[in-house]
Amino acid sequence: MATEQVAVPAGAAAQPKRLSLLRVLGPMHVWALGVGIVLVGEFMGWNFTVAKGGVFGALVACWFSGILYSCVAMIDSEVSSTVASAGGQYAQAKHILGPLAAFNIALFIIFEYCMLAAGDSLVIGAIVNSLDPALSPVAFVVLTISFLAWLNYRGVHTTLTFNFIITALAFITILVLIVGAEFWNPGNITQTQALFAQPPGSADPKMPYGWLGILAALQFGIWYYLGIEGTCQTAEECRSAPRALPVGTMSGLITLLVAATLTWYICTSLVNWITLGESLYPLYDAAVNTGKDYLKVTLWIGTVLSCLASANGCINDASRAWFAMGRDQFIPRWFGGVHPRYKTPYRAILFLVPIMIAFGYTGLLDQVITFSIISGCLIYLIMPLNMIRFRRLYPMDSIRRGYVSPFHPLPSYVLFVFVLLTFLAMYFGYWRNLVAALVFYGLCSVWFVLHRFKYVDRAKLYTMPWPRPKGY
Amino acid sequence: MVWINYGAWALSILLLGWTVVDAFRIETTYDHDLLVSSVEGEIEKEILDHAHPTTPAEGGS
Description:
The complex is a heterodimer. Chain A is mainly α. Helix content of chain A is 67%, strand content 0%. Chain A has a single domain (24-398, 409-456), classed as Amino acid/polyamine transporter I (Up-down Bundle), CATH 1.20.1740. Chain A is built from 16 helices and no strands. The two termini of chain A are 30 Å apart. Chain B has a domain at 29-53. Chain B has 3 helices and no strands. The longest helix of chain B has 28 residues, at 2-29.
C-alpha cells in the first residue's frame, strides 16, 4: 500500500505505515460514554410514563425497560468484546448477518445519535433562553455542537474523560436532591403518601388507566436507558476491549438502574402526578417543590451537564459508525480517514456537524427525539437475531470471547418480545413517525443494494483473523 | 445580554474554524492513502500474534 507523504516534518523512518484509532480507553471511559449519553433521560422525558400509566405504571415501565436494556447490555458485551471494532453493532452485523443488515444498523446508529445530539443541544438552547429571553437559543445550539465537535476532533481520551467528569457531577446532583429532600423523614418534605392517595372523585394516581396505560407508558420507559448500547462504539479504542467493554457497560447499566429508580421515587414523592406527567424538566421541578434554592440551582446545573454529556457521547458514537461505514466503502472511502496526530475519525466528525446543527436548527424537539428513539428500537430488534446467529456461526470455544452472556438464548428472546411490545406502544402514539422512518430506511436499503454495494471491495470487507464460521 | 449571543457565535466560529483549518492542513500535508489506511481487525491480529508468535499475521505491518 502507498505510504508516501508530502512535506512531513518528522523523519520518514518514524512515520507509521498505517493509521489506526488511538487505543487509550478503559472501563471508566466506557462507563462515561454509556451513562453520559443516557443520563439526560432521567432529567427529562421519562416522566411522560406517569401521564400514561400513573405512578405505579411509570415504575413498571422503568423496570420493564430495565430488563430490556439488561438484555441489550449482555448481548452487546459478548458480541462487541469479540468483534472489537469501531461501528459496534454495525461491525457485528456485518460479520454475522451480512452487508445489508450492517448498512441498516449503521444508519440506525447514526440517526439515533445525530438526532439525540441535536435534541440535547436544543434543550441546552431552551434552558439558556429561559434565563433571559434576550439570549438566543440558536446561538447556544450551535455553540454546544461546535464545542463538542471540537473536543471530539482533538482526541477520544480527553473527550471521554470530560464526559466522565460531567456525567458523574450530573449523577451526584440526583443524590444531592434525594438527601436535600430528607428521604429518611417521609412527610416532612417528600409527600409520597399524600401524592399517591386517590382524591375523591378523581382518577387514582397509582394506575389511572389500568394495564392499557402501562402498555402506553412503555414507549417512554426506554428514556431511562436509551443509548447505553453506544458503549461498544469505542471497542477499537479500548486498551483491552474484552475487559473494558463488559465492565464499563455493565457498571453503566447498574448505575442507570439505580438512577432511574431513585429518580422515579424522588419525583413522584415531590410532584403531583398530573404536573409530573406534563413536566419538561421533572427533576428540576421536584427540586423547586422542596422550596430550597440550593437544590434548584444544583438540579439546573445537573440538567445542563446531562445534556452536554449526552450530546458529547452522541457525536463520538455517530462519528465512529460513519467512519466504519467509510472504511468498508459502504459510503465513500474518504470518510474512513484517521487524523494522523489525534487518531480520531476527523472527517466523519466534521461531516456530521452540519447535519446535527441542521436538525437542531429546526427546533422540532419532539420529532427529532421520536426519530432517534425509533432508530434505537430498530437496533434492538436486530440485536437478538444477531446474537442467536453469532452463537450458531461461532459456537463456544471456536472463537475468543471477552465475555459470555449467561442464559443464552433467553436474553435474545426476552429482548425481541419486549422491543415488539415497545413498538406496539409506539404505534398507538406515533404511527406516522414509525411508518415514515420505515419508509426512509427502506429507500436507503434499495439505494444500497441497487447502487452502492457495487463499489464495495468485498475482498477487503472481512479482515478479522477469525476461523471459518460453522457450516461454511 | 445581546453581547453574550455575539460571544456564543464568535466562539462557535472560532472552534469550527480551527477544526476546518486543521483538517485542510492535514489534507494537504498527508497522503490520502495513509489517511484512509485504517483496517478492521488489528486488535484481533495482535491477540493472535501474542498467542502464536510464529504465525504470520495477514497483511500485518
